[in-house]
Amino acid sequence: MLYLTISIFFVVSLFLFFKEFKRFEISNHQAITINYLVSFLISFILIPDKQIISLELINSWILPTIFLGTMFFVMFNVMGVATQKLGLPAVSVAGKMSLIIPVISSYLFLDGNLEFIGWIGILIGIVSIFLTLYTDNFKISKLAIILFFGSGLLDSLLAYIENKLLFGQNFEIFTSIVFFTAFSVGIIYLKINKTKWCKKSIIGGALLGIFNYFSLYFVLITFRDIGSIITFPILNISVVLITSIIGWIYYKEKYRSINFYGVILACISIYLISY
Predict the structure, then answer these.
(1) At what angle do helices 199-226 and 2-23 cross, to 10 degrees?
(2) Interior/surface letters 136-172, b for 16+ CB within 10 angstroms, e for the rest
(3) Does pLDDT of 27 surpass 80?
(4) Do the Cβ atoms of 128 and 266 come closer than 8 Å?
(5) pTM of the predicted protein model
(6) Whether 69 contacts 179, CB under 8 Å
(7) CA within 20 to 30 Å of 76's CA: 31, 33, 123, 141, which one?
(8) pLDDT on residue 111
């Protein structure tokens, strides 16, 4: 469980980075692009034998890994904007309740076990999302919807590659390709938009990259340690609770009572799914 605890720390930190980016007027796009460059360099340095790279590139997991890297850049930007506009509890619930998608995919494709009470938890989880994101006119942000389905797709693909294609091997090469692809997509985006680089965005992105790399590293290690169908619920309920508390106490975010009920239901849902 040590790896799981470390994973929780790094994942929570990612949400906090985006809150601080807004406070220090750091460009999300620039910081995220640099973040993936730093993550790539760390992963590349840790490759045991760089001579095998050319051979590994033709493996069956290369194409889904490139797609995963592209999605990483897109969804990280969505998470950054959503965190700054919707607040920590709403974003953490929308992002982390997306565990519904990988849990179902694990059950269908990765021989995962899900009892009847788990399906009840999934239904409660869907209700919790609506309550947490509730506003006076009951409009749910498009950002939250994109974050929910995009995060679910990412987690499902990540679990599939780890369980069916990597088999616990080639981790450094896998992450290197993911991060380099995300960095390349970011550079292309900034080039098209003719963005002028900012020093503080580069520094913020470098720090984010260190945390981002180790968040993925320890999540994958936890997959191998206790399995993805257990990792997702415990990781996500912890992130939802911790980010909600930090948002309320430190960032003074204002929540309605119905939003609190949504967070509580989200935790109950995750517990039932992990049960």
Answers:
(1) 160
(2) eeeebbebbebbbebbbbbbbbbbbbbbebbeeebbb
(3) yes
(4) yes
(5) 0.84
(6) yes
(7) 123
(8) 59
> How many domains are there within the chain?
1
pLDDT, tens only, 185-199 = 999 999 998 888 999
Report residue 235: phi and psi, to 5°: -60, -45
Q: What string of DSSP letters covers 127-156?
A: HHHHHHT--TT-PPPHHHHHHHHHHHHHHH
Cα 193 from chain centroid (whole Å): 26
List the one residue out of 176, 57, 163 whose CA is nearest residue 110.
163
Question: What domain range includes position 212?
Answer: 2-274
Average pLDDT over residues 175-191: 91
Helices (H), the chain: 2-23, 28-45, 53-56, 62-86, 88-96, 100-109, 116-132, 142-160, 171-192, 199-226, 228-249, 257-274
In angstroms and rounded to an integer, the radius of gyration of the C-alpha atoms of the chain is 18
